[in-house]
Amino acid sequence: MSILSKAGPLGEKLSSTANRLQRSVEGSAGNLFEQLEEVQSIFSSIFGGGSGGLQFPLDVQGNPAYNAAVQFKVRKYGSPDGKSQKELENQISDNLKKQGATTAFADDAAASVSGQGLGSNPSLEDFGGPGETIEATEAGSGSNFIEASSNLLKQATDSVTDNGLLKKGVSAIRGGMRFMDDDSQPRVIMYMPTSFSFVDGVQYENATLGAAGATAEAALQAGGDVAASAIAGITQGLTSFKDLISGNNKLGEQGSRLLIQRVNEMLKFGKGQVNNAVTLQTRTIVNPNVRSIFRGVNLREFTFQFKMIATSRQEADVIDKIITHFRKELYPDIINVPIGEGGQQAGIGYVFPNAFDIQFHFGGIRNRRLPKLKECYLRNMSHTINPTGGGFRTDGQPNEVDLTLSFVEHQTLHKQDIVKGGF
Questions:
Q1: 154: containing domain
Q2: At what angle do helices 252-266 and 273-282 cross, to 10 degrees?
Q3: Whole-prediction pTM value?
């Protein structure tokens, strides 16, 4: 009897593909969109797609020992290709022509530069080579230089416009930028780690109101006008502080000492040494009135730890491919520009790395008992070979690999994400 026909760890029969589809449509407590999404995921796992998938262990799907699994799917950020993209490029081209950014304009600029005696292709040497100084000895030479420089700038701008680089970049942004599945990259399905933490957090800071802020806060809490209370707090100085103490007969001697301390804190003597001496004598300080102020929401971070011990040559190859896949997707693409005619290139920028869609599965479908994750960037990863021994397989592949993946969500959450989104 094969393992696929045996009962599960709780005595239940193992789910077939038909059972998984039925549970997805009938038994899941979610909206129709989520159910269709799960059905699509199931068919994708059956018929493949893209460049296939990587699984560890190889029987992680359908094995009762690994009923829970986690899936990592690459998501790229951009705009979808199609007819709308071409229409946008044509529209931008028409707009540029209306604004005068045409080839004829570039030709006029070139003619203007040529009229200054600089030729059709002016260069740095025309304005004085490196180390040389351009001096405006005549009244018109300064204006000529500025005009020629302006023409060069126009030529460069028009050159970018003519070759379509600017149009493509702008049209891509206007076409709608969003995360999309990258079907050229494999889905990675791993067993669910023994422990996994969801850490939610927000940011609070300590804010010192002082006497002025406390006065404004008290006025607001008493039902005062917001603007008037704010002005009162800002303008509250020594006089109003004195009036406040004088009007409260219960303070007595303590009020007098507090008034002295208020003056002591407003006036700095001897780099604080005299202030400290006065404070020791009055034995009072002005209440700093510290409050907690909400400042924002923390990005959630997630760490996965996997121990991978290959039981076959095929499984060892999959481990190697999984590590290479995550290392590749961690790093950004580089933006190169050609320099000179010798084939040299200079890396002048980076393109953001791809993100990951991370899903938790149970019994082959998404586990709604666990919070969802928004797209996550792989922040760092590490793999340790042979942590408990020094053995290698016959082809040099290590017997044991510990893989640690650390992700950060690309966007913070808000209350509606929890209530309606399931995050």
A1: 83-174
A2: 170
A3: 0.64
